[in-house]
Amino acid sequence: xxxxxxxxxxxxxxxxxxxxxxxWDGSFDPYNSAxxxxxxxxxxxxxxxxxxxxxxxxxxxxxxxxxxxxxxAVTREKQGLKLxxxxxxxxxxxxxxxxxxxxxxxxxxxGRLFYHFSVKRSTTNxxxxxxxxxxxxxxxxxxxxxxxxxxxxxxxxxFVSGSSKWSTPFQADVWYGVKLNHRYRYNxxxxxxxxGNTVSLWASTGGNPLVQVVQPVGTSTFTxxxxxxVGVLRLGTTTPPEDWYISRVFIESGSINTAIGSGTGTxxxxxTTLPTTTAPGSTSKPVTTTTASQSPLQTQYGQCGGNGWxxxxxxxxxxxxxxxxxxWYSQCQ
Length: 333
Ligand SMILES: *[C@@H]1O[C@H](CO)[C@@H](O)[C@H](O)[C@H]1NC(C)=O
Fold this sequence. Notes:
By secondary structure, this protein is mainly beta. It has two domains: 233 residues, Jelly Rolls; 31 residues, no CATH class. It is built from three helices and 20 strands. Strands 1, 3, 4, 6, 11, 12, 13 and 15 form an eight-stranded antiparallel β-sheet that branches. Strands 2-5-14-7-8-9-10 form a seven-stranded antiparallel β-sheet, with no helix packed on it. Strand 11 and strand 12 form a beta hairpin. It starts with a helix and ends with a strand. The relative contact order is 0.18. The N terminus is likely disordered. The site of 2-acetamido-2-deoxy-beta-D-glucopyranose (NAG) has 4 residues, from loops. This is Carbohydrate-binding module family 1 protein. It comes from Botryobasidium botryosum (strain FD-172 SS1).
């Protein structure tokens, strides 16, 4: 107990927020295969998820679990979800959708709750930005991510009741941001105060702790505890399949647990854009800029310039450093 006390004191000193209480755990670890999602039915409501919003084909066409489908920095679970929508994924509409819903008797709509999740896309079966996508949303859309909307359709955007409040370029195969670049954040928490009717957004990249990126916004917050759509809805109909990767799904009450995890040893190239808040334990391996100079060339879609950028300015062959959003951001393309 003495050691725990010392740890708690250190945590307070470093500004590291203590975890709240997980009131619903959407970890995919118990799901060994797509068949496990089929065990849930209206008559037999087992597991962490309801699975009824999907197309006509076998579940294995829409859902798969595996270690490579999660953010590798996440330590709370061993595997993530690959979720697919395609031309067969119609449910009660012309829209294409594959969505899981929390299965729980817990009240997911009172007090202040944090809805956590991480998302990723790949270059294989990449989401088509010419179609609107609703991602991890509620029936009344008071908080959700969207893709394929607005002026920059290639951004993943956070919407509150129809208004875009925040966005990040949706890069392929990036859990780690482009090598810990904080422009890219794919770990999220919707911070919902159901009593105060506000919602705010926490986000981070890779294994970095969540930080609040948008202050509370007033809106009409509501859930019946069975309408948090852990999945994707693509408006319109098109043929190519899209794969979305989802992990670290859970709902927490009390205070937010900002920790993502310590990673799995996957390389996290250091940059000077690391936040001042780091999880306990990460101090044993100080970040230095000398390591960065050992790999001076950026890979495809990685950042190679822009105000404040101190990482690599060259690109691996055959890519060139392109000013995508001057003077803030250049990318290897
Ligand atoms: C939620 O909103 C209510 C009403 O505005 C406020 O009194 C309360 O402090 C908020 N709760 C938290 C945990 O922020």
